[in-house]
TrEMBL record:
Protein name, per record: Uncharacterized protein DUF58
InterPro entries: DUF58 (IPR002881)
High-level lineage: Bacteria, Pseudomonadati, Pseudomonadota, Alphaproteobacteria, Rhodobacterales
Domain DUF58: start-end pairs: 56-251
PANTHER family: BLL2464 PROTEIN
Amino acid sequence: MTEAGPIALRARAEALAAPLPPLLAEAEHLAATVTMGEHGRRRPGAGSAFWQYRPALPFDPSGSIDWRRSARSDEAYVRETEWQIAQSVMLWVDPSASMDYASPKMAPKKERARLLALGSAVLLTRGGERVGLSGLRLPPRRHAGQLLRLAELLAQDDQADYGAPDIHGLPPQSRALFLSDFLGDPAPVEAALTGAAERGVRGVLMMVLDPAEEGFPFGGRTIFESMAGGLRHETRQARDLKDRYLERLAERKDRLAALARATGWLFEVHHTDASAASALLWLYGALERRG
């Protein structure tokens, strides 16, 4: 991707988000969290209650480091308050090779997923939320340069065939958005959502698929190969595989939907030939939902 890539991605995401209203925080939730919340009552101040220390990351300014806590170990630590945690939304976009797939005249799944993630970040930050990336890649913040930094990191690829959510760095009681085709081994996804739920994290799983993956328009002799080349299957009659493939895809969707229900998350399927604005509007409502 060229140097202008992240800037162009941000511009497109902002253009997509422009017709939609900012993500408005629920007044009752904010009042309960910032001033009257269960933890907030323990100490005076609007959202000043201590929540946790976390290891400092390369992007953290020196002024955010708690030097007294850091002096007791070999690592630097950042002190986070309850208000910061309550206002945090963490993003994960599958960077694997599988997301590079695109049928003719369609954008790659990865491009659409990144656009929706960054479009969501635009709305969230306009509404006063703090947005970051999971996997300890970028702490949640709301300052002016955060969107550009998000775009830069989202543009990074992975050579693995399939990806799985990384829940490292998810603050307890925060929210999260995971975008992927979820076509790899489902076990790591299940482990990630279970681990997130144990921390009180709620969020959204969005399955991004190319229309060819949904309709299976293949016939005759066909070679199926994963985008990274790790998997390969050749058949003389691809049409004979269609019913079995569609059945397995339906099973995967049902499994993800059941996982989302069990962990308090929401699940949605988005196709790259569908409206990006409609998908972002759905995400707007889903991420506004708390708890």
